[in-house]
Amino acid sequence: MSSTSKAMRQSFGLRFASGAFLTFWCVIAAFPIAWIAIMSFKSPVDAFADSPWAVIMGPATRANGDGLSILDIVIGLVVIFFTIRWAFTKLPALVNQYASGPMLILGWLIGAAVYAVIFLLIFFGLLPLIMGPINGLLGPLGEPILGMTTQHYVAVWIENEFYRNFLNSMLVTAGVVTISLTVGTLAGYGLARSGSDFAFWLLILALIFRALPHSVLVAGYLPWFINSAEILRPIFGDLSPTLYGQPWAVIAVLVSINQPFTIWMLRSFFQNIPAELDEAARVDGCSHFQAFRRVIMPVMWPGVITTGLFSFLLGYNDFLVTSLLLDAQNQTMVPAIAGYFNRETTTTDQVEAVAAAVSITAPLFLLVMVFQRQIVSGLTAGAVKG
Amino acid sequence: MLKKLALAGVVSLMGTTAWSACAFENTVEVKSLSAGFEAWKAVTDAMAECGNVQAELDQEFRTKQPAAFEANPSLYHIGGVSNGTVTPLLNSGTIRPLDDLVAKYGGHLQPNQLIKIDGKVMAVAMMVNTQHLMYREDILSDLDIAVPTTWDEVYAAADKIKAAGVVDYPLGATMKSGWNLAQEFVNMYPGFGGALFNDDNTAAVNNDAGVKALETMKAGMPYMDPEVLVSDSTYVQQQFQQGKIAMANLWASRGGAMDDEAESTVVGKVKMAAAPLAMEGGAPATTLWWDGIVIAKNITDEEADAAFRVAMEGMDEEMVKANNDAAIWLVKGFQPGPLSEGAIATATASPAAPAYPSTSRMGLMHTVLGNEIPAFLTGDRDAAATLVAIEEAYTTSAKEAGVLK
Amino acid sequence: MKFKTFATFVGPSVVMMILFIALPLISVFFESFKVTQPIMQQVEVETCTPGFTGQTCVTSVKTIPVIGDDGKVETVTQWQGLESYRSVLQMEKVWAAIGSGNWSDILQIDFWKALRFTMMFTLLTLPLVIGVGLLIALTVNNAAKSFKGPVIFISLLPFIITPVIGSLSIYWLFVGDGILTAMMERWTGTNISMFAQAWTIELLMYFYRVWHVAPFAFVIFYAGLQSVNMDTLESAVIDGASRLQRLRHVIIPHLMPLIVFIALIHLMDCYRVFEEIVGFRSQAHVISLQWLTYDFLVPDDAGNRAVSRASASAMLTMIGIVLLLIWPLRRTWKEHRGGAH
C-alpha cells in the first residue's frame, strides 16, 4: 500500500504495534537457528551448558586455548559488515557485468557461491593466520575473552568427509529440480489449457496422492529396489541394475512424490497466462508444442523459478526416502546428520552434528538470498491464485 | 582435534617400528554393513587397511540388512550383527556356516568368540556389552554409602543422595519409550525369576514377577529426571558427564565417555559395579549382549574367503591394542581396565545374567513392551491392566507374524 | 486441446505418479485385506554365546521359519477380510468403553489416541498458521521499504530449514535444563520439565509447526497483498470504512483463494504429522497416525514387521485425509465448473 496516500497514513500506535510484532516475530524466527550456530563453535561442555551466558562466552572452550580477543571480535565484525554490504552493492554489479538475460540466474548462483567461498577462506583461513601473531604482540588486549573453535567443522568436513555427502546432496537435488520442472511444466501447461473433467479428476487424484503418508510408500519400495536386479533379469539380462543405492532411482522417487504439488502450482500459474497468447500463435499455424515453446516458455520463468525452489527444498531436505534407499557411498547430507544422533553417540558427535547441521543450512541461506525477489514476484505473478 | 590425531600418529609410528597395516593384500571387492558405534569404527578401519574394502556404518542397518542379504547375489559380504539382529539372518538362512573358514584363517580366535548354532559356527563375536551400575564414587564415599548391589539398596542410596542434594537427580535411566524402555523391563523381569513366554509361544508376563518388575521400575521415577521417558543412553551419558546424576544402570560401551576429558566434567570419578540384583539370590537384573560378524550365503566361495580374511584382520590383536577402551573386547590382547570391572563382574556373577534371548517372538514382545509400558509409568494405567494390555497386544502381533496360530 | 495432445503433455508426469505412487497405493490397499506369514516350525536348537571368560550353551525350543528348496523362507498368504482393520480399530473395546461410560478408556487404544492428537493438531494449527501468516504479511507490507528485504529473508528461515534440524534445534532449547527451560525456571522459581507431561510436549509441537509453516503462509499472502486492487481500497476509504472493515471486506475476500490454498496444503501436511513425534521423542505421551503406521512397519530386532496392520492403518489415514479435504475441494470443483474453458 503506497504511503503517499494521505488517507492510508497510519497512526503512530498502529505503526509501533506493527513494528513491535515484526521484531518479535523475527527474533522467534531466527533465534533457534542462530542458537545452534553459536553452539557449533563451542566445545561439547560449553555447547550443552545450562546457562545461556556459558554457551555464548564458552569458558571451557577458552580454557582449551581456543578463543577470540577483543581485537579479533572487532576485526571480525568489520569483515562481516563489509561482506554483507558488498553482497548488496558490489556483487550485483559484478554479476550483471558478466551475465545477462537467461544466464542471469546461473550467474547469480555461481556468483553467490564464489562469494561465499571467498568469505569463508578469508574469515576462517586468512584472519586467524594474521591475528595469531598480532594477538601475541598485544599482550592483555590480545588475550582471548570469547571461547570459539572451528574444530567441529574441521572434524565434519575433513575427517568425516562430509563433502562427499554434500556432493551427493547436490547431485540428487539438481536431478530432482531439473526433472521435476521439465515433467511438471509440460503437465501443468496441459492441465491448464484443457478444461475437461478428466483433467480436473486427474488433479484431484494427484492431490490425494500427495496426501499419502510417505513412510508407507518408502517401506514399500525397499524390497523392490534391493531385488530389482533379480526381478528385471528376465527382461534386461545381465544389464539389469540394482536400484537400491542409485541416486537416479532416488531422484525418480522424489520427483514422483513431488509431482502433485508441482503440477498444481504450475497449472495455476499457466492459467494466469492469458490463453489468447498461445491461441494467437496457434492461429499462425503453430502446433501446441510450438506454441508452448515460442510463446509460453519466454514468459513462464517467474513461476517456474518459484516452483523450482519448492522442489529444491523437497529434494535437499528429504530424510525418509534418502535414508532408506541410498547406501553409505551415495548418502546425502540430511540422513548423514541424523546418523550422528541415532547411533551410539558421544557428546562430541552431537556437537559435530550441530556443526554439520549449520553447514547444510548455509546453502539454503544463499539460495533464499539470491532468489528472494523471484519468490515473491513469481508468487505474485499468479502461481498462488488457488 | 586434528593436531592431536597427527601427534598420536607420530607417537605410534615411533613407538612401534613393526607397524604393519594388514597381513595380506586383498584383491577381491568386499563390502560390509554394520551399526556405527565406536567399536565398529575401529574394526572396519582395521579391515579397510587390507584394501578393496567398502565399509558402511549405517543407522538403518536393522532395516536394510535382512533384505540386502536376501538378494542374490547379496549386496554385502560381511554383516555386523548383535545377538538381537542376527536372528532375521539366521531365520531366513542368508548367512553361511563358518567352520571351514575358521579352521583356515581363524587360528588366533578365542574359543568363546565362536557363536555356535547346533554345533555350526554361524558368527564370530568380537565384544560383549551389558547394562551395569555406574556410580559417582566421590558422592557415595562422601555420604558414606556402600556400593549398592540390589535395586532396593540403589533406591535407599538414591534417597540419601536426594536428601543431601548434591546432584540434580540421584538416578539416571535409559527409559526412552520404545526399545530402551522395553529393554529395562527385559532386564528387570527375569531378575525376579519371570519367564516371558509359555512353551506354546503365548505371553506369560501377567504374573507376580511382572507386577514386581513394573513396580520396581516405577519406584525409581521419583529419583529421576521427570523427562526420563525421552532419555536414551546418550542423554544419560551426558547427564553423568555434566555431573547431574550420581548413579545409573548404563551400557558398558558408554563407560569410556566418562573419562573423556574433552566432554566430561567428572573424569576419574565414575566407577563401575555389577548390575544390581532384583531380588536376593537372583541373577543381576540385566542381559548379556555380543556384537560380531557374519558372512553372507549368496556370494561366491572366493568372495567369502576374502571377506572372512579381511574380517579377521579387522578383529586382530593389533586393533584391540590400539582401541583397548572402545569396548569390552573378546579378542586376544584385551587388557581389562577399571572401566570394564562392572561388565566383567556382571558376566561372571553367579547365578549369571542371561544372554538376551533373541527369537522372533522376543522381537515382537520387545516392541509391544516398548509401546505399552509408558502408559503405566505416566500413571494412565495400573500394573495389572498394563500386563493384560501387553499380553493382548503381543497376541495380536504374534498371530499376524505367524508365531501364534 | 485434443486428448492426444493433452496426453502427450501430461504423459510423463502421470506415468511417474502411477509407477511410484499409484501402484504402491494399490498394493497397500490389497495388503490391508490379507496377511502373509512365514510357515513356522518348532525345533530344538543349541545356541552357544560368549560370556566374558567361557561360553554358555543353551538348548531351547525355538519357533523358526521353514526354509524352502529355493533357499527362501516359505510363506503363506491368506485373505482375511477386515481382520487387520479390526485389530487396528479395536471397536469392541471402544463400544465397551462407551457402554461403561469410561470415555477416556478409548484413548488407551493406540489408533484412537493417535487420531485424537492428529485431529487436534491439524485443526488447532490451521487457524494459527493462517492467522500468524496473515499478520506477518500485513506487518511486513507495512514496514519501511529498506527493511522489507532482510525481514522477508529472516521470516523465511523457519520454512526453508531442514525439518529434522529445525525440530532438533527447538528440542535442545527446551530439553532437560535447556536454556529456555532454565530461563523459565528462573522467572517462575519452580522446576519445569517440558518433556515430562503430555500437554507441554503438545504445546511445543504446536509451536514448532506454526513456527515452521507460518512463513509459507506469509510469503503466499504477501504475494497476494501485492495485487490488492488499490482502487477498491481507496473507494472504501472514501466510504469511511475503518481499517478493520477494509481488512474484512476488501483484503480478506481478495486473499480468500489463497487462504483455501494454504488450508488445503496445511490439512494434508498436518494430517501426516510425523517429524514432530520423532524429533520431540513424544511416543510415551502422544503419537500420530503416520507414526503409528511407521511403527508397524519398522522391523524389530528379529526382523518382524506388521505389514497388514500398517497397510490398514495407512488406508484409514487416507480415508481421514479425503474426508478432511472434501470441504476445500468442493470449492475447487465449483470454480472448475464455473470457469471451464
What is the gyration radius of chain A calculated from CA atoms?
Answer: 26 Å
End-to-end Cα distance of chain A, whole Å, is 23 Å
Give me the oligomer status: heterotrimer
Which two chains share the most extensive interface? A-C, 94 and 101 residues
Which sequence of strands runs across the widest sheet of chain A? 1-2
What is the molecular shape of chain A?
Answer: globular
Say how many strands of chain A there are.
Answer: 2
Please describe the biggest sheet of chain A, giving its number of strands, its sense, and whether it closes into a barrel. 2 strands, antiparallel
Compressed to H and E, one letter per element, the order of chain C equals HEEEEHHHHHHHHHHHH
Strand content of chain C: 5-15%
- Give the low-confidence spans of chain C: none
Percent in strands of chain A = under 5%
Helix content of chain A: over 70%
Topology diagram in text:
The complex is a heterotrimer of chains A (386), B (405) and C (341).
Chain A lengths: L11 H28 L4 H4 L4 H6 L1 H5 L3 E2 L1 H19 L1 H9 L5 H35 L7 E2 L3 H9 L2 H32 L3 H15 L2 H13 L1 H9 L10 H25 L3 H9 L4 H12 L1 H17 L2 H6 L7 H10 L4 H37 L3
Antiparallel strand pairs in A: 1-2
Chain B lengths: L1 H14 L14 E5 L3 H11 L4 E5 L3 H10 L7 E5 L3 H6 L7 H7 L8 E4 L2 E17 H6 L8 H14 L4 E4 L6 H13 L16 H12 L13 H9 L3 E7 L3 H4 L11 E4 L14 E8 L5 H14 L2 H6 L5 E2 L11 H7 L12 H18 L5 H19 L4
Parallel strand pairs in B: 1-2, 1-3, 6-7
Antiparallel strand pairs in B: 3-9, 4-5, 5-7, 5-8, 5-9, 5-10
Chain C lengths: L2 H29 L2 E5 L1 E11 L4 E11 L9 E5 L3 H7 L1 H10 L9 H33 L2 H16 L2 H12 L4 H10 L9 H28 L4 H9 L4 H29 L3 H5 L9 H9 L9 H32 L3
Helix pairs in contact in C: 1-13, 2-13, 4-8, 4-10, 5-8, 8-10, 9-10, 10-13, 12-13
